[in-house]
Design brief:
This protein has helices at 2-15, 20-43, 51-72, 94-108, and strands spanning 78-79, 91-92, 116-123, 135-138, 145-150, 158-164, 171-178, 184-189, 194-197. With 204 residues, it is α+β, with helices and mostly antiparallel strands. The chain folds into two domains: 18-110, no CATH class; 113-197, Sandwich (Immunoglobulin-like), CATH 2.60.40.
């Protein structure tokens, strides 16, 4: 029985242009390539704001993962219906594995809703007033889409700022500008939740 199995394995390798070591390198390189893409998107998440980048990342990650898993576990699978498309087409082979991994990756990959952020005004003293009506947010890098939020307890106090980041931007240098006070330089980062304002200095 063992001799028959060995014979089948040797026949399968003979019928393929690849050797066993080539498949091992395919598995390793596929895993490494996917890891590099994931690390790149973690370091530069702003690229996920662009639909074309997100779609290409999904295609590449799912394609290389399905290749890796199919080499490790080369079982034939079938589907009578393509998920989400509701097409009653029977598909079989590696395409089934790719479809499943693509759908799972699509669910796991973060969407571009992190483009919107609310920054709370963090003050050393709660009664310290940052004017709500006389404050604007400006940036030399880009045009900011923002909205000032008034404190419901301390009227005319600035409570927070809603900012919608431009696509691809994860950090923006900006200024809080006031009517009676000197501007304050701030850095708006998607990973942050607060803007620190310790004091306001009047013009001389």
């Amino acid at each position: 029985m063992e001799e028959q199995i060995k014979g089948k394995e040797s026949d399968s390798f003979k019928s393929s242009i690849f050797e066993a070591k080539h498949f091992r390198w395919l598995v390793f390189s596929s895993f490494l390539f996917v890891l590099v893409i994931i690390l790149f998107l973690i370091i530069f998440p702003g690229y996920l704001d662009f639909e074309i980048v997100r779609f290409l990342a999904l295609i590449i990650i799912s394609l290389y993962l399905s290749l890796m898993f199919f080499i490790i576990w080369p079982h034939n699978a079938t589907l009578d219906k393509i998920p989400h498309l509701n097409l009653t087409i029977k598909v079989a082979g590696p395409i089934v594995l790719w479809l499943l991994i693509f759908l799972i990756t699509n669910k796991l990959m973060p969407s571009d809703n992190i483009q919107e952020k609310v920054f709370t005004i963090n003050k050393s003293n709660e009664s310290f007033r940052v004017p709500y009506h006389e404050t604007t947010l400006k940036s030399d890098e880009t045009v900011l889409d923002y909205m000032m939020i008034e404190d419901v307890i301390y009227k005319s106090h600035l409570k927070a700022i809603y900012v919608k980041f431009p696509k691809g931007k994860t950090s923006v240098k900006a200024q809080l500008q006031f009517t009676k006070y000197k501007p304050i330089n701030v850095i708006l980062d998607r990973k942050m939740t607060s803007i620190f304002v310790n004091k306001l200095e009047k013009y001389d």
